[in-house]
């Protein structure tokens, strides 16, 4: 195998790694119906404010993904038309939830781990049916402090193969799940999902990625991302929230 000379990028010697670098990577971002989003913030934000914040964080998350050249394309999976409209407006594909989260099984409210993981698995199957063997990364939709450099590093670490996970800053959740090559996505999002993913064989990725590891669910998470620095859409949304005291109960 010929070796590259500067200034050309060094060509890796092993065929496996060369295939890794050449294989496209597709991101999947899931967002539930805005009407039920961010319920853990309901004590301080009304539903309109929560929807505004979700859309802003999604916008910033997608903008950061777009700045990562290793990720070729993105699909937002959602049952919500407003979320879908935002996704279309920034040029990403939309995949409708197979069972919109209004669907009830035997009258019971479905749990996140039922509806979210089903939506992710369906989207992943659809993408691979259309695109063949692509690397996949599921990213949380609420990563407003994530930096392109963090995601670039995580992608590079994931590409050594198989299924891998970026554990969130609490140490219990998942902010990103990778499935490279032929490996199945096998999403285990929900309570204690970090353990769910590592116990099912996903390799935890180590890196100083505070923004990538901080998905926003609580008031404390909001403080954390504010301190890290958020993207422009989230910053504008937080400014609007401050300006409208009526949104706090
Ligand atoms: N498309 C889709 N996305 C989902 C579904 N359930 C959860 N999600 C998304 O997955 C991520 C984590 O979900 P949750 O933590 O349950 O919801 P959340 O809105 O972030 O916060 P809480 O309501 O406070 O739990 C969020 O971005 C959700 O929008 C689903 O059934 N379908
Ligand atoms: C569903 C998850 O995220 P969240 O922290 O938003 O509940 C998870 O970490 O698996």
What does this structure look like?
InterPro entries: CofC, Nucleotide-diphossugar_trans. It comes from Rhodococcus baikonurensis. Pfam families: CofC. The chain is globular and about 50 Å long. The protein has a single domain (25-240), classed as Spore Coat Polysaccharide Biosynthesis Protein SpsA, Chain A, CATH 3.90.550. The chain has eight helices and seven strands. It has helices spanning 15-22, 47-66, 81-89, 112-131, 148-158, 193-199, 219-228, 232-243; strands at 25-30, 73-78, 93-96, 135-139, 163-167, 174-179, 203-204. It has a seven-stranded mixed sheet with strand order 3-2-1-4-6-5-7, sandwiched between helices. With 249 residues, the chain is an alpha/beta fold. Strand 2, helix 3 (81-89) and strand 3 (93-96) form a beta-alpha-beta unit. The protein binds guanosine-5'-triphosphate (GTP) and phosphoenolpyruvate. Phosphoenolpyruvate binds next to loops.
Descriptors for this entry?
249 residues; alpha/beta; Spore Coat Polysaccharide Biosynthesis Protein SpsA, Chain A; 7-stranded mixed β-sheet; 39% helix; binds guanosine-5'-triphosphate; binds phosphoenolpyruvate
- The Rg value, from CA coordinates, equals 18 Å
How much is the average pLDDT? 89
Q: Which ligands accompany this protein?
A: guanosine-5'-triphosphate, phosphoenolpyruvate
> What is the CATH topology descriptor?
Spore Coat Polysaccharide Biosynthesis Protein SpsA, Chain A
Structure at a glance:
The protein has 249 residues and is of the alpha/beta class.
């Amino acid at each position: 195998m010929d070796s590259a000379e500067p200034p050309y990028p060094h060509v890796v010697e092993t065929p496996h790694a060369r295939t890794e670098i050449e294989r496209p990577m597709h991101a999947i971002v899931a967002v539930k119906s805005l009407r039920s989003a961010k319920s853990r913030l309901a004590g301080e934000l009304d539903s309109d404010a929560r929807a505004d914040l979700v859309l802003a964080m999604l916008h910033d998350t997608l903008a950061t993904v777009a700045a990562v050249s290793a990720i070729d394309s993105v699909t937002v999976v959602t049952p919500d038309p407003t979320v879908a409209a935002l996704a279309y407006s920034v040029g990403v594909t939309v995949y409708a939830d197979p069972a919109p989260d209004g669907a009830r099984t035997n009258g019971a409210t479905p749990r996140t781990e039922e509806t979210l993981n089903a939506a992710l698995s369906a989207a992943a199957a659809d993408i691979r049916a259309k695109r063949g063997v692509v690397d996949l990364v599921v990213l949380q939709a609420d990563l407003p402090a994530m930096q392109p450099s963090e995601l670039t590093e995580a992608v590079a670490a994931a590409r050594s193969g198989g299924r891998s996970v970026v554990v969130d800053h609490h140490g219990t959740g998942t902010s990103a799940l990778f499935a490279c090559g032929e490996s199945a996505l096998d999403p285990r999002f929900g309570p204690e999902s970090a353990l769910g993913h590592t116990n099912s064989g996903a390799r935890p990725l180590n890196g100083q990625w505070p923004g990538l590891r901080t998905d926003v669910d609580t008031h404390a998470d909001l403080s954390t991302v504010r301190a890290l620095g958020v993207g422009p859409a989230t910053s504008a949304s937080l400014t609007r929230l401050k300006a409208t005291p009526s949104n706090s109960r």
